[in-house]
Amino acid sequence: MAVRLFFASLIVLLVFLGCGGGGGGGGGSSAGTGLVPGTPVVVSGTISGTISVDAAISAIRPEISSFSPSLRFIDSFVMIEELPNVSMRADQDGKFVFENVPFGTYRIIARVTSLSGRVYKLRTTAQSVSQSAPQTTVVISITSPDLAENQIRMQIKDLNGNPVGKCKVWFWGEQFTVDANGYYLSPFMPAAAAGVIKVEPPVDRELSKLNFEISATTFNPDNVEIIGITLPTAGITNKAPIVSITTDKYPEEGSAFLRLFGHYSDPEGEPMATSWITNVSTFSYIAKDYADWAVPSVSASVTVYFSASEDGQYYPRLTSMANLAINVASTGEVSFPGEILLRPVTRVVDIVGSATSQVAGNTVVQYEAKPKFPPGLALTYNWTVDRGTLISSATESIITWRSPTLNPGITQQASITVAVMSPV
Q1: Would you give the distance in Å from CA 141 to the centre of its chain?
Q2: How many domains does the chain contain in total?
Q3: Side-chain-side CA neighbours of residue 345 (13 Å)
Q4: Are the C-beta atoms of 218 and 152 separated by less than 8 Å?
Q5: Domain with 404 in it
Q6: CB 235 within 8 Å of CB 212
Q7: How far is Cα 358 from Cα 373, in angstroms, rounded to an integer?
């Protein structure tokens, strides 16, 4: 009996405390929440979806697709970009389900290996799960433009301009590798791939992390793209510019110039000044975001540098640089993807003067060499004549020449030659 009375008193006490809490302005009430008192609060949802493969892709291996009509791909990998440890494979019908996804906004990344063995990749639009909409469904449609066959390279430096190795660089859930020349090399991506590149410095370097957006033109299959970033020392809140240098992957054969494009942005929107530098040849024209580089007439290993420096209110003012290697050689082929190989150009020189076809004997005339070379080069001249007399310097662009004295009725042929040389 005592036990029963004690139990009854305990229940009365709990009810009384519950009522007292509600009478103080409703702070402890569940009214208006839609939740039954004592119901656990849901803080996660579900993202489900289906992968479909365009018929043009799945029909590449008709002997396989006809053997198994439901088979549309060999393998698939699906992940949540913002939760890189959350991933799975879709089933044979292309279906997948992510459960217990914390409320938030996410993008789904899919990698699909087609029946032909080619890899396709896609990043969805933003998908949200919330208290009011805990379940969302996404349809991932793989088409030909999603073929992943393009790469970019990146250079990472510290504030002193020294390369930073052992960084972890991520894009679409995949990690960059490092090539033989020290460039960070991206995974293969579709031509229109866009999103966030995430850079984590090595653990033994006190450097800042960096996340930055790249546009849908970055993986253009017709271009070579080199991105350059600077990682400030940890503790510096100012972020360095993001720069890149871009040019045609297959330059016009025999062209005397190569147009280079420089792209730059600053995370804080600071104004910037840009600079172009080359270790070989010169630029025939320089603008803030592009330059025309003169192809040399001799073989050379060339590096072109493009940099952008902050010129605003934040300190320290930071600079980032990207550099492009160009190989000028009379023979050979492209030896690695992204290499720029050019042939030395043959330059033309015209000779103009008062008489270039016929002149009387013992007559003084002037001739000028008009080289079609890029402007700004330091040129040297060397004139030679096989008849007559050179009465001015043979090493200037303009010469004065006296024709030979001839007897009446006599005709001779004279040859005047100029060799123009440039340092490139």
Answers
A1: 26
A2: 3
A3: 21
A4: yes
A5: 349-421
A6: no
A7: 28
Determine the 3-state secondary structure of 88 from DSSP: strand
pLDDT of 339 over the 60 cut: yes
What's the mean per-residue pLDDT of the chain?
A: 84
Q: Which of 273, 276, 278 is nearest to 286 (CA)?
A: 276
The answer to whether residue 35 sits within a structural domain is no
Backbone angles phi, psi at 352, to 5 degrees: -120, 150
Sequence-separated (6 or more) residues with CB below 8 Å from residue 119 = 111, 112, 113, 147, 148, 188
pLDDT for res 59: 62
Grouping H, G, I as helix, E, B as strand and the rest as coil, residue 18 is helix
**pLDDT at res. 182:** 87
- Which pTM was predicted? 0.74
Same domain, yes or no: 303 and 193: yes
Q: Is 179 exposed, middle or buried (0-12, 13-18, 19+ CB in 10 A)?
A: middle
Q: What is the distance between the alpha carbons of residues 101 and 73, in angstroms, rounded to a whole number?
A: 27
Local structure of residue 297 (DSSP, 8 states): S
* Residue 28 is assigned to a structural domain of this protein: no
What are the tens digits of pLDDT across the range 30-89? 444 444 555 565 688 999 999 988 887 766 555 544 444 455 677 889 999 999 889 999
Say yes or no: 233 and 333 in one domain.
Answer: yes
**What are the distances in angstroms from CA 98 to CA 45, 53, 125, 138?**
8, 20, 16, 11
Q: Give the H/E segment covering residue 3.
A: helix 2-22
**The Cα angle at residue 259 between residues 257 and 263, in degrees rounded to 5:** 160
Two structure tokens written together for 117:
């063995």
271 shares its domain with 220:
yes
How large is the average pLDDT for residues 139-163? 95
Report the distance separating Cα 295 and Cα 191, nearest Å: 29
